[in-house]
Amino acid sequence: MADRPDPLTADQIAEGLRGLPEWALVDGAIRRTVTAPSFLAGIELVRQVAEVAEGMDHHPDIDIRWRRVTFTLSTHDAGGLTFLDLEQARLVDGLVADLTAAHGA
């Protein structure tokens, strides 16, 4: 794929994660787990993240366990993390902040 972004270096990943304190580097991907105020709120968060992912043409792995939603980001076709993963993590963080504010948590 000609437009595939280049994988980030370890230093670039570390720098990017400094601005994403809720995310952790796990097995070559970045991961964040959110506990939603209800199951339906968690599903709505997933729906909103899905819209962002479609717009970016960059799709996270999502695991839903009742109110706990885990997002895992990596750029599979680049063989590691890219700027797309860090950008999507920032967008997910914004959606989580909106969810938290809407539910007074």
Automatic annotation (TrEMBL):
NCBIfam families: PRK00823.1-2. The keyword Lyase applies. Belongs to the pterin-4-alpha-carbinolamine dehydratase family. It catalyses: (4aS,6R)-4a-hydroxy-L-erythro-5,6,7,8-tetrahydrobiopterin = (6R)-L-erythro-6,7-dihydrobiopterin + H2O. Gene3D superfamilies: Transcriptional coactivator/pterin dehydratase. Coiled coil: none annotated. It comes from Frankia nepalensis. This is Putative pterin-4-alpha-carbinolamine dehydratase. Keywords: Lyase. Its EC number is 4.2.1.96. One of its GO terms (biological process) is tetrahydrobiopterin biosynthetic process. InterPro entries: PCD_sf (IPR036428), Pterin_deHydtase (IPR001533). One of its GO terms (molecular function) is 4-alpha-hydroxytetrahydrobiopterin dehydratase activity. CDD domains: PCD_DCoH. Pfam families: Pterin_4a.
